[in-house]
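Worked example 3 (structure in, sequence out).
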């Protein structure tokens, strides 16, 4: 194509605004073209010169995000069940009984659903089970012991 050849209108994009990656690429291409000499620009315009794309370093592949609520476990039901339990042993037995369903991501969701007294940052099942036990029935047992034990007023 020479500078006198007409531009084929059908080859232009239909959308009035380019996509963000295209707009950024166009800005970078213009910045590059502005650094060239008049002779270099004439070579490109006449077809004697070329603009060449060279890929940069390989970008890491993005992993797909796992679903936040796996179908194998009912997080809401587990939260209700655990909140009904009164002793740490009951919670521990419940979590052990559902060990196959309660994967680490599910345990984290359960911990978040149980509220602020439960630490949801554990990385293993053991850590998360301990935090769930201590943050629910364990917390209630300790609170009851403190309010009804040594802290109680004598009358």
């Amino acid at each position: 194509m020479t500078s006198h050849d007409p531009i084929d209108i059908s080859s232009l994009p239909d959308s009035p605004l380019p996509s963000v990656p295209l707009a950024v690429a166009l800005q970078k291409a213009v910045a590059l073209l502005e650094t060239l000499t008049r002779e270099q620009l004439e070579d490109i315009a006449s077809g004697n010169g070329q603009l060449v794309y060279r890929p940069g370093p390989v970008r890491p592949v993005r992993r797909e995000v796992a679903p936040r609520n796996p179908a194998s476990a009912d997080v809401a039901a587990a939260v209700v069940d655990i909140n009904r339990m009164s002793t740490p042993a009951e919670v521990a037995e419940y979590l052990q009984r559902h060990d196959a369903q309660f994967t680490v991501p599910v345990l984290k969701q359960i911990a978040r659903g149980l509220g602020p007294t439960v630490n949801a940052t554990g990385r293993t099942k053991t850590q998360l089970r301990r935090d769930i036990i201590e943050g629910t029935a364990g917390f209630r047992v300790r609170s009851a012991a403190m309010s009804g034990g040594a802290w109680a007023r004598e009358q």
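Notes: The radius of gyration is 32 Å. The chain has a mean pLDDT of 80.
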